[in-house]
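Changelog-adjacent note: as of this version, every example in the card shows the full chain rather than a window. The one below runs 598 residues end to end.
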Amino acid sequence: MKSKFLIISLLFTITAIIFIAKLFFIQVVETKYKLSADNNTLRFVTQYPTRGKIFDRNDKILVSNKVYFDLKVVPKSLSEFDTTALCRLLKTNIDEFKKTINEEKQSYRPITIKKQIDDKEFALIEEQLYKFPGFYFEKRTIREYQQLIASHVLGYIAEVNPEELKNDNYYEIGDFIGKSGIERKYETQLRGKKGVNILIVDVLGREQGSYRNGKYDENALAGLDLTTTIDADLQAYGEKLLTGKIGSIVAIEPSTGELLAIISGPTYSPDLFIGKNLSENYKMIEQSKGKPLINRALTSLYPPGSTFKLINGLIGLQKEVITTQTVFVTNGYDAGNHIVKDHISGSVDFQNAIQHSSNAYYCHVFKRIISDPKFTNYADAYEDWKMYVESFGLGVHLNSDLDNEKKGILYPASYFDRYYGKARWNYNTVISLAIGQGELGFTPLQIANMTAVIANRGYYITPHVIKKIQNNKINKQFIEKKYSKVSEEHFKPVIEAMEKVVSQGTGYSAYTPGIDICGKTGTVQNPHGADHSVFVAFAPKNNPKIAISVYIENAGFGSTWAAPIAGLMIEKYLNDTTSKPWVEKQIIETDLINQTYK
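Full-length structure tokens:
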């Protein structure tokens, strides 16, 4: 019994010691419990950080911040006041105001009475605010655009939704978060870190000073500034050229993978997505003709058309099923159940087939690739061809730092096995792939990157839009070279032919004296309307500084619209001017969406 008494006494003693220690910790050591208990006499004022600014590659400001104020109050601390006078001062509906206060009247949590008050209105309200004890201002910032461009690239910010609140405890109701574009992809770098000021207030909610002389205050840390790879002048010029057109322009610096311009048309002004009218403006843009909210450069999947002949040509050379001396008779190509028509005829060699965009020639090339005797069946040969195509960044996620980048369409052999039956299809079944039609769909970003691979004679660096993060190095994936499966020596004849495409072939409308542009036209069949106009190019021929893809929907031949737009963009970037003002005028003033020409 004595032993049991000692054990029980010991347990009680240990429990008492634990409780005493915990009480000491709560009351003396740890201050957060004290602050919580004093919550009804203290006001925790969040110090919101300044969001990081966004610059173009030449340090021109694209996005900065401007100050605004939210008017707040702790409902429980309110005493009687002249509601009518306050509502008149705030220019707000008195019934809605009373409803807001009554719903939260027992709350010690601050609520927002009026949002996004500008400097002018702030001065008027602050002058009279002493009449309404308990009401106070909280300083915030909102985005400000120095140039009204690149809305799809930059993205926008808006208030957090319930799902975002649940996923990240950094945010509270009323906070803002990046919703798309750079603002979304680089949210954690741009947002900074919130701080807090703890103030003593009396029973009427009037500030009495800083709690413990600011001992427990925390300063806000500003977000990091981002420098993009975008050239603001080139971006603005491209958006101007794309006025009244549905399509996209993507320009890359081949040697670095830096995106010089990413344009989707039609576009919209980024300042429509700031301020109190964001929701209304969003609905307006959403319902606009041409669907401006779609970022076609990253999410629209188009067949590459005749631009894909460059890839099949390179694969044919690498796999040694053709040489640059190979000649085919191009009076159309007999695919068994139909004839693939051609607009040139006679005996055509490798470079002429690119220069004049022969369909039949590349049907023969594709036939040789898929019937390569090194493989026991067509499916295996197709899978090998597919790996070559993917090595150009086509039909795969490029893993850029852009928002919502699509993978593209490049089906495996098993897809055709399911559709036609195993071993019941061959090169003629999928012959459309020879000329960039059929079961293919790539983004304009992927096509521009493909062009950069050719410009670099066999490699690319993952396309990216951020050059530096407040002097910090970017991710190493954006400096590493990724090589295609085609050897460097095979690019020379393709590039020579691409130069002739522009100087004396189907892409002559992109020709610019003094600049050796290498390009390829494409006219993409569209089952829903007129063909799409496509052009890819890079320049100069040696040591290229820019690679570009241009897609103009429902615009016909690649030489009609896409090629001259690409030529103007290249000249603008390399020479900072254009030598064909009449072409520029016609393009800008033609509205292909509404079919008008000024």
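Structural remarks: Confidence is low (pLDDT under 50) at residues 33-37.
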